[in-house]
Amino acid sequence: YHRQHTKETQLSKFNLTETEAMLGSYIKVLFIRDPFQRLIATFLQGMGSSPSFSSFVQDVLDSGTHNASVAWKPHVSLCRPCLVQYDYVVMFGFHREELGHLLRRAGLPAGSILPEFTDTQVQWTYRWLSEQMFSELSVQQKKQLSRFYRWDLAAFSFSSNFLSD
């Protein structure tokens, strides 16, 4: 896009004509991750000051979506997938397949550029962690989390939902 802007410039700072021109001139890629995996990763990285996963989840729920940290805020409210027509949506856990396709489409040699991904091990690890950590949550917390992430769960086909019980 021809207009000069810095990386701090937000899309909302442009008028509608500029926004449409800018979005039309880029290949738009959205990287997403299962919201429950994001919660677990955030907790394990110590980004919350809570002593247990259950109390961390309660802090997240108490913060609400408007005051939520970017680390666990729903994707739909961050990336506006209903307003921005993304060319690619790359889901965490499928990087090898999806990034290879994206690089080939861009005319780049995918095999020599991509790092080694351990997608299968990552998926298995998060499945196990999710089962363990979500068993700590009350039925009420599970219902609230399901509501908190309802638009992400509706917009993207995440493979597992540990809140169904």
Automatic annotation (TrEMBL):
The UniProt record lists the keyword Membrane: yes
GO BP of this protein: carbohydrate biosynthetic process; dermatan sulfate proteoglycan metabolic process
Pfam families: Sulfotransfer_2
Keyword Glycoprotein: yes
Gene Ontology MF term list: sulfotransferase activity
Keywords from the named record: Carbohydrate metabolism, Glycoprotein, Golgi apparatus, Membrane, Signal-anchor, Transferase, Transmembrane, Transmembrane helix
EC number: 2.8.2.-
Compartment(s) where it occurs, according to its Swiss-Prot or TrEMBL record: Golgi apparatus membrane
GO cellular component: Golgi membrane
Topological type in the membrane: Single-pass type II membrane protein
PANTHER family linked: CARBOHYDRATE SULFOTRANSFERASE
Family, as annotated: Belongs to the sulfotransferase 2 family.
Protein name: Carbohydrate sulfotransferase
Gene it is expressed from: Chst9_1
